[in-house]
Write a structure and sequence with these properties.
The protein has 136 residues and is α+β, with helices and mostly antiparallel strands. It has one domain: Alpha-Beta Plaits, CATH 3.30.70. 27% of the residues lie in helices and 29% in strands. The strands form 2 sheets. The chain has a 4-stranded antiparallel sheet with strand order 2-5-1-6, with helices on one face. Strands 3-4 form a two-stranded antiparallel ribbon. Strand 3 and strand 4 form a beta hairpin.
Length: 136
């Protein structure tokens, strides 16, 4: 089964302040994330994953009557958290997806202590009658 794991970061007084971390702290965080991705690749559970730009770059798009895009600034400016990145994993159970999410949540922050960021876990659903959609 495929699961999407979505990493939510604190917004604070603006975009996530990872850019304000020391170079060493940022490197430790990125090294942790790269090891996680490598381990998931080696176990055959990796499907995809990416970090996302900060909420200041997010846009909401809706179709106009004629079908042209109507673009507005990003969603939920009052939100306390934003989607910072995601993984899609293919694993045997929700429990295994939770274990991967817990590991991702423990990525080090600016002080080296685990961030314990919330990771939302959702199963990727099959289209009705199409078992291949979620199985890759």
């Amino acid at each position: 089964m495929k699961y999407m794991l979505m990493m939510h970061a604190p917004k604070g007084t603006g975009d996530w302040a990872a850019g304000d971390w020391s170079p060493e702290a940022l490197k430790a965080h990125m090294d942790f994330m790269m090891r996680l991705a490598k381990d998931l690749e080696e176990s055959g559970e990796w499907v995809a994953g990416e970090g996302l730009a900060g909420p200041g770059e997010a846009r909401v798009v809706r179709a106009t009557k004629g079908g042209a895009p109507a673009v507005t600034d990003g969603p939920f400016p009052e939100a306390k958290e934003f989607l910072a990145g995601f993984w899609i994993v293919d694993c045997d159970s929700a429990q295994r997806a939770y274990e991967i999410a817990a590991r991702a949540s423990s990525a080090p922050g600016p002080s080296g202590a685990p961030l314990n960021m919330p990771i939302e876990v959702r199963q990727v659903m099959n289209a009705p009658g199409d078992e291949s959609v979620a199985k890759g």
